[in-house]
Amino acid sequence: MESEAGDALSSLIRWVDPLDTAIEAANRCDLSEGPSVSLDRPAVRSVLHRCISGELDVQELPRWAGAVHMLDRVEIEEQDIELLTQFLFEASTPELFVPVTVDVCRRWIDRLE
Which of 49, 65, 33 shows the shortest CA–CA distance to 102? Predict the structure, then answer.
């Protein structure tokens, strides 16, 4: 079960399943005890690149970012915590910042390099 929970959390971080399925599975697993999974710059850049290419729907990026941001078992390495937390917050609340577009994704990729 522990491996299954980690897989569900990692699947959401990497956004490899349909978003509704990934969020539901990650939320269920996040409630159980177990090791955390790591969110890092390469994972975020990969999601952003896939939004730019059209593989993922850029309009769904705020839902993805909000879901990842709310998970208790997702950790960010200390050197990246400020930047990635800012990304998750801004991307998940476009009504407070800017609407999420392909250009916004490109700008975040540049910041994450």
Answer: 49
